[in-house]
TrEMBL record, chain A:
Annotated InterPro entries: NDUFB8 (IPR008699)
GO cellular component, one term: mitochondrion
Designated name of the protein: Uncharacterized protein
Lineage: Eukaryota, Metazoa, Ecdysozoa, Arthropoda, Hexapoda
UniProtKB/TrEMBL annotation, chain B:
Species this chain originates from: Apolygus lucorum
Function field: Accessory subunit of the mitochondrial membrane respiratory chain NADH dehydrogenase (Complex I), that is believed not to be involved in catalysis. Complex I functions in the transfer of electrons from NADH to the respiratory chain. The immediate electron acceptor for the enzyme is believed to be ubiquinone.
Entry protein name: NADH dehydrogenase [ubiquinone] 1 beta subcomplex subunit 7
Stated family: Belongs to the complex I NDUFB7 subunit family.
Location of the protein in the cell: Mitochondrion inner membrane; Mitochondrion intermembrane space
């Protein structure tokens, strides 16, 4: 029980859980953002609530599509973050108590990478695509009747169509 | 089975070698001394529709297919009893396919 020294326990709880906003929320309604901050005091309180500095806190614009006092920042993708850093949540590459983007579920590892840098420029890739597909189409077109089974289509009865056997009438 | 030869023939002489997926432009009685025998469709549209025969099977052997399906249904699970019907149907299909044009040019040459 040497590990469970009171000061160690205290420092763990104090640093990781005890000082976080997580303990202040119990039910899903408690995770809802507050109303849009109008005054300077409200802005400071909201910034403190989300663990941001006063200068970097910009709420999502209240244009009818906003999210109360939730902070707005440039989206980042999970794919774009350092995979070797010891994240608290390696599957989301996210640290405990880190403020998440409003649409975080759009930017997880298997979804959209907003910071993706294509290996080649877009018009180069388009030109390669069109070359390959057009070349294949051209080859298929010029080779269409280069080899085929020498059989005419099957005779299916249809109104107004007469099919013949290869026997002649005896009369 | 002559696929490449047919392709070469078509590329060399596109005016006489027919395309495989097109209708022949020749007169059906061209080269025959008398008129050719016409194929007769025996099964009616209502029969085929009520028996749920699929569209690609509604050919000139469909009445034999109807017989085979009927026998199959009556004898199930002793479907060995329908061997005769099945044989008749498949033979009819074979004859029908060799009666489709072009392959039978060989037969024509042999018979003349």
């Amino acid at each position: 029980m040497a590990l469970l020294k009171p000061d160690l326990l205290f420092s763990i709880t104090r640093r990781s859980i005890g000082s976080s906003q997580v303990l202040g929320a119990y039910w899903n309604k408690d995770w809802k953002p507050g109303p849009y901050p109008r005054t300077e005091e409200e802005r400071v309180a909201a910034a403190k609530k989300y663990g941001l500095m006063k200068e970097e806190y910009i709420p999502i614009p209240d244009d009818g599509d906003g999210a109360g006092d939730y902070p707005q920042f440039k989206p980042y993708s999970v794919q774009g973050r350092d995979p070797h850093y010891p994240w608290d949540f390696p599957e989301y590459r996210r640290n405990f108590n880190e403020t998440m983007h409003e649409n975080f579920n759009m930017y997880t590892e298997e979804k959209w990478n907003v910071e993706m840098k294509p290996r080649w420029p877009m018009r180069y890739m388009l030109a390669a695509f069109l070359t390959v597909m057009g070349g294949t189409y051209y080859l298929a077109t010029i080779g269409k009747y280069s080899a085929f089974l020498p059989v005419m289509p099957k005779h299916l009865p249809a109104p107004g169509v007469t099919h013949y056997k290869y026997q002649q009438n005896q009369n | 089975m002559g696929n490449i030869q047919a392709g070469i023939d078509y590329k060399m002489h596109p005016d006489v070698v027919p395309k495989p997926d097109h209708k022949s432009n020749w007169d059906p009685n061209y080269g025959f001394s008398s008129k050719r025998e016409e194929k007769v469709m025996i099964a009616t549209e209502e029969e085929l529709h009520s028996a749920k025969i699929s569209l690609q099977d509604r050919d000139y052997c469909a009445h034999k297919l109807l017989d085979y399906r009927k026998c199959y249904r009556e004898n199930f699970p002793w479907i060995m009893n329908c061997g005769h019907e099945k044989h008749t149907y498949l033979n009819c299909e074979y004859d029908d396919s060799t009666n489709s044009e072009f392959i039978c040019l060989i037969q024509l040459c042999l018979s003349s």
